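PROTEIN DATA CARD
Card holder: Sporulation protein YtfJ
Chain length: 160
Origin: Aquisalibacillus elongatus
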Amino acid sequence: MSEHPIHEMMVTAMENLKDMIDVNTIIGEPIETPDKSTIILPVSKVGFGFAAGGSEFQGGQSSQSDDQSQSGGSSYPFGGGAGGGVSINPIGFLIVRTNEVKMVHLDEGTHIVEKLIELAPQAVEKVQQYFQQQNKGNKKQGQQQDQQSKESNQSTSTPE
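Structure generated from the sequence above:
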């Protein structure tokens, strides 16, 4: 039994799409700095689509025999098409150093969560400093109140 013509179209289109897209399309080839201390990897967002369709048309004389139509072959002429597309958008660079890995985005709006994660330790440190200052202020205020209360006790407890 021969394959339906749309099958061949779909296989051809998918093979061509597969040839265009591989892992190096998303994470590009590494670029190493001359001093060998840093590796830069380009990062892209990849999208692709695929469509195929066809129809058998009734009418006209068929050149195929009735035996073929009963064995699964079509006795009608076929018309169809297939297509696909790929979209590749660079989004940033992954910078790998000895002690650090950093993502540098090309679009400033795409990395809000990453920025929050980067700023979290600094925010925690600021909050800790604030509470430490508050505790020191409370201790000083408490010491001043104790000293004032001792002074007032001494001035009121003088014998007559």
